[in-house]
Amino acid sequence: MRIYKRDGSFYRKVFALALPIALQSLVTIGVNMLDTIMVGSLGESDLSAVSLANSFISIYQIFCMGLGMGASVLVSRYWGMKQAGDPEGAAALALKQTLSLMLRLMFFLASLFAIATLLLPAGLMRMYTEDSAIIAAGVIYFRYSVVTYFFLGASLTTTIALRSVGQVKLPLFVSFGAFFVNLGSNYALIFGKFGLPRMGVAGAALGTLLARIFETTLILGFLLLKDQRICFRPADFFIRTGSLIREYIRICIPVLISDGILAFGNNSVAMVIGHLGAVFVAANAITSVTQQLSTVVIQGVSQAGAIVTGQTLGMGRRDRAMEQGYLFLGLGLALGTLAGIFVLLISRPMVGAYRNVSAETRQMALQLMAAISLINVFQATNSIMTKGVLRGGGDTRMLMLTDNIFLWVLSIPLGLLAGFVLHLPAFWIYVCLKFDQIIKTLWAVLRLRSGKWIKRISTGGTT
User: Fold this and answer.
1) Residue 84 within any structural domain of the chain
2) Number of domains composing the chain
3) Is residue 47 part of a domain?
4) pLDDT tens across 118-130, in order?
5) Rounded distance between C-alpha atoms, residue 167 and residue 164, angstroms
6) Does residue 457 belong to any structural domain of this protein?
7) What predicted TM-score, i.e. pTM, was given to this entire model?
8) How would DSSP label each residue in 177-232?
9) Per residue in 250-297, pLDDT tens?
């Protein structure tokens, strides 16, 4: 099948989903960029502390992404069934059961991470660095981030569920509001403006919490009170889910496990970076915003891929889903190439914006930017295929295995070898740490061609 063809309805549907998702991600990145720039003005120790503390918080965020995306596989499929005709109401009931299971697991995970952050903040920071100044600043940041897990998890998972039934505009508008809440509160609390105390690192954490509260109130409020597609109401949180648990475990839990193990794997990458020295840590913190900026559209298309594939299969159109898979492959190659060029174009202006860091840090950051531009081509392609098409087809168990094998067997050992044994330049250390992205791209193409990624999914009764 062809990876490029004229199919206006397909591309319109994809980008009608992908662009609002991408814009929302862009707003979120803007919040992170403001945090980084504002905290960076306080000095390298505070910048490194916030960056490393957020490496742990990102483990939880990835868990929630896995939880939400796992549920999305079912939600999009059931929504497709509902659109195709649901006379017995089986798909409508399964939609509510899926949301209930997702939210229950989210609150459980939030509780675990909140307890760990409350009781072991210094221990968590020592996983990444031995610098006492960075650890001390990180402990302060953690102290104000404990409650954030609950709001972050609720808004993130609910947003993904709403997107799966085509509700993409509201989360975007809410994110714009959260951006301005974060901007104002960060400025006031970090630097002590408008009569408020100067809180530094603590102010950055508190500003993020306020933005998350704003976000969750509107997103969860819409789901529980206004949404007419899933029709999930407060009482449905306690709905009986026994008939769907087996299917939920089969499809959703592998995504959670896969993304969870990947989170720890990526965190291991952060630990490697943390122990390469303060200069490398600061350089990586500078590039992290650019990494995110360069992949916002790719993330949007990835999630659109899962949604479109799930809905198409829910309508019983297997051949169409296969055809769409190849078109998504072509999109991945094109968008990855554009993302690589984008990074090269903005690398010097982005690095130059950090005036309070050393010349050595800036030079290392430029090396990392060059490596990011190369890896983006492969990361975009495999992300759209694995996190999008193959996941939307229900191939979650195979993805759980391959994602983590490539990371733990290839990328992490190669990164350790490059950084601590061979002492290679920053460019090659980063390429080695991301080598799994190259291998996964080749594997994803082979898996797509096999057709084995298309799985049957039931509503708890029939398949």
Assistant:
1) yes
2) 1
3) yes
4) 999 999 999 888 8
5) 7
6) no
7) 0.79
8) HHHHHHHHHHHHHHHT-TT----THHHHHHHHHHHHHHHHHHHHHHHHHT-SSS--
9) 888 888 888 777 767 766 776 677 667 777 777 777 787 777 778 888
